[in-house]
Amino acid sequence: MPVTIYDVAREAAVSMATVSRVVNGNPNVKPTTRKKVLAAIERLGYRPNAVARGLASKKTTTVGVIIPDISSAFFAELARGIDDIASMYKYNIILCDSDQKLDKEILLINTLLEKQVDGIVYMGREITDEHLQVFNTATVPIVLAGTKERSEELPSVNIDQNQAGYDATTRLIQGGHKKIAMVTGPFQDPLAGIERFEGYRNALRDNGIDFRQDYVISGKLTYAAGLEAANLFMSLEEPPTAIFAASDETAVGVIHGIQDMGKRVPEDIEVVGFDNIRLAEMVRPRLTTVVQPMYDIGAVAMRLLTKYMNNEQVDHHIVVLPHRIEERQSTTQLSEE
Amino acid sequence: MPVTIYDVAREAAVSMATVSRVVNGNPNVKPTTRKKVLAAIERLGYRPNAVARGLASKKTTTVGVIIPDISSAFFAELARGIDDIASMYKYNIILCDSDQKLDKEILLINTLLEKQVDGIVYMGREITDEHLQVFNTATVPIVLAGTKERSEELPSVNIDQNQAGYDATTRLIQGGHKKIAMVTGPFQDPLAGIERFEGYRNALRDNGIDFRQDYVISGKLTYAAGLEAANLFMSLEEPPTAIFAASDETAVGVIHGIQDMGKRVPEDIEVVGFDNIRLAEMVRPRLTTVVQPMYDIGAVAMRLLTKYMNNEQVDHHIVVLPHRIEERQSTTQLSEE
DNA sequence: TTGAAAGCGCTAACAC
DNA sequence: GTGTTAGCGCTTTCAA
After folding, report:
1. Burial (0-12, 13-18, 19+ Cβ within 10 Å), B56
2. pTM, entire model
3. Backbone dihedral region of B59: left (phi > 0), alpha (psi from -120 to 50 degrees) or beta?
4. Quick one: which of A44, A93, B10, B120 could link to B64 by a disulfide (CB 3.0–4.6 Å)?
5. Distance from CA of B255 to the nearest CA of A (A)
């Protein structure tokens, strides 16, 4: 039923090979022939079959993307960066939500590999041995974006989470605070759960501030968790005067929790968030936060993948992008500068 | 290099056809044979090539999804619904950001068709004749999600945008307001720009309230636009006492704009938003808004598409999902009930 | 500059 | 139950 390359060949009175050359922009075609073929394509409404092409050429110009949750502001922004660069390099993306479930992740990787994607961008919590095992069966490159991998064998793009946690905490210490609490991710989460938390603890230690267990709450980094954390902290005998939340959504929850109790941010309590999703500007006071270049993490990861797919030289397979702190109104301005 | 079905056949001492049967769960295989084949597959680490299968079977178990912007909370939620149902039916998704650009949309549709997707879910502003033309060249089903199409020929899933705008406005009128302003989308946008606005105007008319041009601002529905709109409205000689914003993000901007001027929501001015993205609960006061079942729109669209792909009977190709108003604190409670 | 022909890895009759 | 075989629509040598 549909028009094939053979139909075009017949219509243009040339061979399939010539049609193929024209379609693929091969310069070794006489202009008149090219014109003839193009006309036939137009006349017949020919649309090349990419599946057949993929089988013959062993390239699909499609990459797989595994993402924990596309409806999260953070990952959606990463995805946007990935997609933009992919589109720039003429790749399409097979997007797979993994829900952070290990078995679903493994299944998805296998499915993507079966579909003969030319490469994979993986986003997730952590790379386990099981992941590594499946990745090893792949003959195509894989790049991690915003994902922890201890062995540092796989190419990856990230920020220095530990340092970022350290910096956020230090910022609060510079503001004169000694009673600094933190809302961190689940301790199973190597990035938002552990690394940022360790940065926090190191900053306290380096500034001679005792670590207090009751100043730390670990759990899902939701808005509700921030609300609740604020309540808990404020009901302490000696409530903190500053709170560092490991996600913006949680930080906004913290701010609202504080405000709901009649306290003020930053006058009574200062708050610092993490990520710099757009929400950070949609709260009063606007949120001071650690800027993670989300779009860039995605974009750079995809760019890196294109290099691998084209067998280009790659200098550093581990890319650490810079982070910084965006000063807004949930902290008071530092006086000394 | 990679293991093919032929290698497995040889290893298991059966024919390719038998291997194919085992892989595809065809029951016409003796259990002992099946075991033998499975063992060979395991031993060789065979992974079926979905591209070859697609070429032979003319099915790719992949659907294309065109989306204006995956980093928008609204569309990300739709995408999530689409992906969940797709995954449930064992389909993968090729996700394409269109940026609402007509030529990119057309290009993407063609690319998806070349890649032999089994169907397409399209999200966008409006279906033009040019869209229709390309869609007509497709031999696979296409379903629109949250997208306006006048002819009502194409299957689609949406809410009644006009009625929703009407309801939101009516809610404000019931609150005793006569001076009701609206921030609406660009007038080129048939959904957020025109339909909701017409609902607003009809509600005013039906309640004997004169329409005032200076109570309407049309433009991009961003947070900043809301901020700005609030400023404009408040600087009017006779400022409105209620504002209906055609998106939650804009509504939150309106709220903050009002608060920044020292006025209070809802005491001085009431605000109603649209969509019910998660942001609506992350603002003080929490936002009263028109609930669009975003996830469901995506999920139902995908479900509908599976029916078409399986040649199942479809009763209504135009699905209109219910909307409702979620009462929160940016409006005062209605007294009469 | 062009054409012929051999696959790419699999499915789906059809025959046994 | 199982095997044989002819494609699916294209790319890619290799010759001409």
Report:
1. exposed
2. 0.95
3. beta
4. B120
5. 10
